[in-house]
Amino acid sequence: MTTETQDLRRAMARAAEEIDQALDILLPTEEGPEARLYAAMRYAAVGGGKRLRGFLVLEGARQFGVSRHAALRVAGAIEMLHAYSLVHDDLPAMDDDDLRRGKPTVHKAFDEATAILAGDALQTQAFLVLAQEDTHPDPAVRAELVRCLAQASGARGMCGGQMLDMLAEEGGQQLDEAAIGRLQTLKTGKLIEFSAEAGAVLGKAAASQRHALLGYGRDLGAAFQIADDLLDATATAEETGKRTGKDAEAGKATLVSLLGLERARLQADRLVDQAKSHLDGFGERADLLRMLADFVIERRN
Predict the structure, then answer these.
(1) Lower CB count within 10 Å: N or C terminus of the chain?
(2) CATH label of the domain that carries residue 164
(3) What does the alpha-carbon distance between residue 28 and residue 121 come to, in Å, rounded to a whole number?
(4) What CDD domains does this protein map onto (predicted)?
């Protein structure tokens, strides 16, 4: 392992710990009739995962001197939204998975109805956090954060991508490279794009800087999805903490199934180079973001 990789892993581990501490506050333990719902929300969101999206928020915010407190609230909100998507994605009506982040999925640990409600509540809690004055004193900034996250996660974003994925699987469609790219951009990429851009929104950055981070997030998200597909094809469940080989079992079209392992890896490498080129104007302060781009295609989980 290179020194750069070690530095990045340490930084990501510190960030993940901070994000979990923030989530512990933003998702308090409740007593009374709602206690089971809060327990399921915390089970889904607190602990585990790479916190890639939250890390992007923190590093993007650092480029503009944004307070760590504000950045952690936004990072926590995005991780809640991401956790909700995983809870629902694992349900029997979707991917029907039993394992997530090395432990039973929420509908297995609790039940299906509780899992649905926990996902719903995590989603709404994410928007509540973004809308609160404690996240940013400027209501225009808070409104922009809410708008961008809603766009990234709705019918023209993550949910729309999941719908396209389901339609392709149910219909047995053989998608071409452009169609797969669009599906993955919506399902995975849009939330990663916003995570990269959010720090610039918090910092009221110039349009050019915000656009640069958005471009970085777009290419990073595309590379991340190819890496995820490569892991599904080549890694073990012990390495990833979730069931692998699902895409091949379902006959799902991915860039890996379309291009083959070697060409898919080359495509991911090209996207990583593009992602890093967007950071040319940020200097050494963006080194961790550059390392992250390399990390997403080298990881084994």
Answers:
(1) N
(2) 1.10.600.10
(3) 13
(4) Trans_IPPS_HT
